[in-house]
Amino acid sequence: MKKILLINGPNLQLLGVREPGIYGVKTLPEIVADLREYAVELGCELEDFQSNSEGALVDKIGGSLAAGVDGIIINPAAYTHTSVALRDALAAVALPAVEVHLSNVQEREDFRHKSYTAAKCVGVIAGFGAFSYRLALQALVNHLDSLK
Questions:
Q1: 76 in Cβ contact with 57 (< 8 Å)
Q2: Catalytic member of 23, 79, 116, 133
Q3: C or N: which end of the chain has fewer Cβ atoms within 10 Å?
Q4: What is the mean pLDDT of residues 35-44?
Q5: pLDDT confidence bin for 111, thresholds 50/70/90
């Protein structure tokens, strides 16, 4: 059974109340519960982690190899555009990863157009709201299966 690590960055614990016109009305626990069910359908185990702290996110990525993780889905949130540390952590563990965003960051402010982490991911899914997470899981599992 594949083990997938879902990492969510800063402010995502506020989903459902934070700018619902941009991020939707689903809460993070609702998104995770849906993704957990979908992971079972795909034959995967899903571990989830959310933190507002860049260091905690880096530590979680850094421990993923020892935890037996096969792939990572990451929504770095605001750290997407600022964190060389997250980029370097993804590079260090070299696990297949998919970056995910609820909104289409290319439609938003210019500073959101640059992702430091995307270059260390096999792909990016953005702009489909909470459904982006399901697409990311499906894409990651498909990628992992193609490596066999």
A1: yes
A2: 23
A3: C
A4: 97
A5: low
pTM exceeds 0.85, yes or no = yes
- Find the range with the poorest average confidence among 11-20, 114-123, 128-137: 11-20
Which position among 38, 81, 101, 133 bears the catalytic label? Answer: 101
Q: Report the share of the chain in percent with pLDDT over 70.
A: 95
Of 33, 24, 30, 5, nearest in space to 136 by CA: 5
Tokens of 143: 């990628």
Torsion, Cα of 100, 79, 29, 43 (10° steps): 40
- Edge-to-edge strand ranges of the sheet holding 44-50: 44-50, 2-8, 71-75, 97-101, 123-126
- What does each C-alpha distance from 22 to 17, 103, 111, 128 come to in angstroms? 11, 6, 16, 11
- HSE-up (13 A, CA, CB side) for residue 33: 5
| 133 is known as an active-site residue | no
Token duo for residue 102: 């609820």
Q: Please confirm, yes or no, whether 23 is among the known catalytic residues.
A: yes
Is 105's pLDDT higher than 80?
A: no
